[in-house]
Structure formats: C-alpha cells, structure tokens
Amino acid sequence: MRDVIKLAYKSVWMLLFLSKSFLTTRIFRLKLWLNHVDYGKNVTSANSITRLLISKSATGVKIGNAVAFNNYDGPSWNCKCCLQVKEGGKIIIGDNSGFNGVYIYCSLAVTIGEWVKIGGGTMIIDTDFHPLDFENRRCGFEGMNSKPVVIEDDVFVGTHCIICKGVRIGKRSIVAAGSVVVKDIPNGEVWGGNPAKFIRKIVNKYE
After folding, report:
1. Dist. CA 144–CA 166, nearest whole Å
2. Residue 61 falls within a domain, yes or no?
3. Of all helices (H) and strands (E), which one includes residue 136?
4. Integer Rg of the chain from CA
5. CA distance 177 to 161
C-alpha cells in the first residue's frame, strides 16, 4: 500500500511540474518575442520564467534550438536564470545547451556554443562593472573595462562558478564547481579553483 501511495505522489508531482513548465515556457517564449530575441525551436523555461533584462539598444540576442533554462524557486534553493544585456551587448547561445539558474551579464559580447551545460548559481560576466581606478569609481562608471566571453561546444561548467571577462573556454573542457575563471582554458582540460588552474587533460575516446 505504501508503495502505491509513493507512486501516486510521484505521478501527481510530475504532472504538476510538467503543467507548470508548459505554462512558464509559453510565457517565456512570449517574452523572447516581445524583446526581439531570435530563438529556435523547443526553447524551454522550466519551473519558473527566466528573467530577461534586455536593453532596447542591445545589438541582439540569439538562442538556438532546444536550449533549456531551468529555474528553482523552492524553500531550499532559490536560483533563477537571468539574461541581462546592456546597450550594445550581444548574446549568442548554440543548440542543445542547458542552464540551471545561471546569470549572464553582457555589456559587449557573450558567445556560448552547442551542447554546453552550466550548473546552478553560475555567473557569466563580460565586464568589471566598476572602474579599477578609485578616482574613476568616485565619478561613476567611466573607465569600466569589458571584454567578450566565449564558451565553446560541449563545455561543462559546475555549480556556483564565476566566468570573468575576456575568457575563452575551449571545446569539451570542464570547470569544477565553485571555480573563478580569469584566463583562457584550452580544449579538453579540467580546471578548478580560485583562480581556476589546470588539473588534468581529458582523455577523449573518439580521438
């Protein structure tokens, strides 16, 4: 009897989840259209609606096919995806990539390849936000430094990482959870730490 109740509970929970995700995805796609985002087929926003903060003066946002944005708003973890694009900024996301509660801030350019998976709480930022010179900070944002971020195909980024400006992460590479990436990562390597450093090569059975 207990097993039957557990199965019924799981079935009801899954039905509610799918129903909510169906609705949030439809609303998300409407928001994409209203923000002039070029998006492909089967783009989803599960569990909650991904936030869009896109300047009318942004260069553009392009999202490929079957890109999944997963959001969490439960009592144990509140972490939602957000795409923030400032004036002149441009975001490109390739097919079949997935994001769990990821925040992307783009003032210049953020390019993400195909089959990229990025873990919950990770931030991708292409700017310093504030000038490094203290006198410029007193005056505002003059002298703020921005550089493009590129994440190539099949990269996996663990939870709660920070990908900083000017970084290129090569194909098939892995970034360990909690890492701060401040310099380029070559293809097929595992990096981790703060700042992220080389750990080992990835052996690719297809090469």
Report:
1. 13
2. yes
3. helix 134-139
4. 19
5. 6
Q: Is residue 206 part of a domain?
A: no
For the chain, the domain total comes to 1
Q: Which of 86, 130, 168, 171 is catalytic?
A: 130
Whether 48 shows a pLDDT value over 90: the answer reads: no
51, 153, 173 from 21: Cα distances, Å: 15, 26, 30
Please tell me the pTM assigned to this model. Answer: 0.86
3-state secondary structure at position 180: strand
pLDDT of residue 86: 92
36 among known catalytic residues: no
Q: Residue 179: how many CB atoms within 10 A of its CB?
A: 24
Domain holding 130, by residue range, is 1-201
Give the span between the Cα atoms of 159 and 100, in whole angstroms.
Answer: 9
180 — alpha (psi -120 to 50), left (phi > 0) or beta?
beta
What is the per-residue pLDDT across 169-188, written as a single tens digit (0 to 9) for each?
999 999 999 999 999 999 99
Cα dihedral: 28, 33, 35, 39 (round 10)? 80
128 against 113, higher pLDDT: 113
Q: Is residue 207 part of a domain?
A: no
Q: Determine the Cα–Cα distance for residues 48 and 51; give it in Å rounded to an integer.
A: 9
In a domain, 4, yes or no: yes
Amino acid type, 1: M
Domain of residue 2, CATH code: 2.160.10.10
